Amino acid sequence: MAKRDVPLRWDRKMQQRLARGEAAALGELYDRFASLVHGLAHRVLDDERAADHITRDVFAHVWEHPDTYDPRQGPLRTWVATLTHRFAVQRLRATETAALVRGGPGTAEELENKVRHASVAARADYIVQSMPAPLRAALELAYFQRRDYRQTAADLGVTEDEARRRLRLGLQLLSTARDAGTAPHPPAAPPGYGGAA
User: For the whole model, what pTM was predicted?
Assistant: First the structure.
């Protein structure tokens, strides 16, 4: 419990510093989360410039509305990732809808499928990045190097039962990305923020 409380303590202090208008706090937050924000935005939008805009928008929102983060609801990292996801999906939907209105190729159904696919992919990336290193290592061996659980166990120096457990748990976590993507609209916030994770 003490280990988990340390990041939350940092999250609370960061939110308080942002609420006081400390520019240095925004700089620290940017240094810590900018690559996460940009990576998630790029995963959804597949556009470098658009990802740059989303990154700027997310940090502007955090600066202007630090009180919308509630440390009791979860880590600051999750809140920032959720904002990024929401902003990026809104931008993708708006851009693609505008293209449809102008007579571009595709249908509204294809647009929703594209948004859903991008949303699931971004969520899966975030889940993999956020999972504990032992689970991530097992999944990477199994997926990218095509190792079975026995080979994964040998590579990681763990028992076969432990390798199976890590792979099963990692896959269960990843399945939540797909499940969340079946909703008609992507989630706006993690549990406790008014939406699904």
Answer: 0.68
Which two three-digit tokens encode residue 194? 């008014």
**Radius of gyration (Cα) for the chain, nearest Å?**
19
- Within 64-151, strands assigned E span none
CB atoms within 10 A of CB 46: 12
Whether the CA torsion 158, 164, 165, 169 is positive or negative: it is positive
SS3 category, 154: helix
> Count of H helices and E strands in the chain?
8, 0
* Residue that is written with structure tokens 């998630």 in the block: 40
Query: Six-digit token pair at 82?
Result: 């959720």
pLDDT digits over 47-56, tens only? 999 999 999 9
Please list, in sequence order, all residues whose beta carbon lies within 8 angstroms of the beta carbon of residue 152, skipping any fewer than 6 positions away: 138, 141, 142, 163, 166, 167
Closest CA to 115 of 83, 95, 89: 89
Residue type, 47: D
